[in-house]
What we know:
The complex is a heterodimer.
Chain A: E1 4-7, E2 10-13, E3 19-25, E4 31-38, E5 42-51, E6 54-57, E7 65-66, E8 76-78, E9 87-94, E10 106-107, E11 111-115
Parallel strand pairs in A: 2-11
Antiparallel strand pairs in A: 1-3, 3-8, 4-5, 4-9, 5-6, 7-8, 9-10, 9-11
Chain B: E1 4-7, E2 10-14, E3 19-25, E4 31-37, E5 44-49, E6 55-58, E7 61-65, E8 71-76, E9 85-92, E10 100-101, E11 105-110
Parallel strand pairs in B: 2-11
Antiparallel strand pairs in B: 1-3, 3-8, 4-5, 4-9, 6-7, 7-8, 9-10, 9-11
Amino acid sequence: EAQVTQNPRYLITVTGKKLTVTCSQNMNHEYMSWYRQDPGLGLRQIYYSMNVEVTDKGDVPEGYKVSRKEKRNFPLILESPSPNQTSLYFCASSLGGVYPVTGELFFGEGSRLTVL
Amino acid sequence: GQQVMQIPQYQHVQEGEDFTTYCNSSTTLSNIQWYKQRPGGHPVFLIQLVKSGEVKKQKRLTFQFGEAKKNSSLHITATQTTDVGTYFCATQAGTASKLTFGTGTRLQVTL
């Protein structure tokens, strides 16, 4: 089954404790992206990747890191989480292609993170 | 930078009534996508519009891309309780690879 898998789905952590949210897709998609969703603010892009070893900042990259060493995986790293990073996080992927059309995004189930 | 406004933020309708959400951009768009997110769920792709003035239909849903490619609308005819959720537009401008999401319109449908 084609899917985007995120882990963990729920996490409560404390300020400053490094954490990683994993994202894996099995559709051989080139494009992957991370979003955070907060009430009233919609979906805001954190980082995206057009292909392996190619990553770029989205609209709200501060406090986050990513890597794309393999095509299928795109982990989101919070080196020193703070309470303002409490949010619902979504990983998404798409086939990618010629600019400017990225194509349909497939989303993971979401990871709800609480930073105390 | 690209700004995307979606209106209304929230709409409550009775089952059978129509519903429309609008997506407006400050810049000319290369394409626009629409997504639906059910309560507690993740966004699910509905459709993509690319051409100026394009109109696409999916059963009771009608999607339109403005002639100037700066706005779009999603219209639902005769809403049902299964239409409940938040509808997002997502836009790309020019050769930018970023997809910018609108703030969404939350639709509530009651019997």
